[in-house]
């Protein structure tokens, strides 16, 4: 897809979170700027990202089963998804947690709670 085609359409954001409420909150707050889809787990994230590649993935860190770090490593080591920007979103704010996110391959690490306007700008910068 050309850069011009990307600019003329609404960017697609895949939200990966075991709490559906977080997806609803993001999609309601930012639906004017982005098209949203949802995955409830790391495994469904990978299949969704291959089937319908998003422009950016918002990835929760703390999920049962495959956590955000492992999901990010999987995304970055899969040819079809390795170039999709990943923004990790977490309530874990220590430098060690952030470092683990970047080591797993994320492009951005955002700590909850966050300001919607700030998140909007970060997503726009990644798209």
From TrEMBL:
User: Could you tell me which SUPFAM superfamilies the record lists for this protein?
Assistant: CheY-like
Q: A GO BP term, please?
A: phosphorelay signal transduction system
Q: What is this protein called?
A: Chemotaxis protein CheY
Q: Which residues form a coiled coil?
A: none
Residues modified as 4-aspartylphosphate: 60
Q: What single Pfam family name could you report for this chain, choosing any that match?
A: Response_reg
Q: Which InterPro entries match?
A: Bact_response_regulator (IPR050595), CheY-like_superfamily (IPR011006), Sig_transdc_resp-reg_receiver (IPR001789)
Question: Response regulatory domain: which residues?
Answer: 12-127
Q: What SMART domains does the entry give?
A: REC
Supply the alphabetized keyword list: Phosphoprotein
Q: Which domain of life is it from?
A: Bacteria
């Amino acid at each position: 897809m050309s850069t011009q085609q990307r600019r003329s359409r609404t960017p697609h954001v895949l939200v990966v979170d075991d709490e559906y409420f977080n997806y609803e909150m993001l999609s309601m707050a930012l639906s004017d700027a982005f098209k949203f889809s949802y995955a409830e787990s790391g495994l469904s994230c990978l299949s969704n990202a291959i089937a319908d590649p998003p422009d950016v993935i918002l990835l929760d860190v703390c999920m049962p089963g495959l956590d955000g770090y492992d999901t990010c490593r999987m995304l970055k080591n899969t040819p079809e998804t390795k170039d999709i920007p990943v923004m990790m979103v977490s309530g874990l704010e220590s430098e060690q947690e952030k470092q683990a996110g970047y080591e797993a391959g994320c492009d951005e690490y955002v700590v909850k709670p966050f300001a919607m306007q700030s998140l909007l700008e970060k997503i726009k910068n990644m798209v």
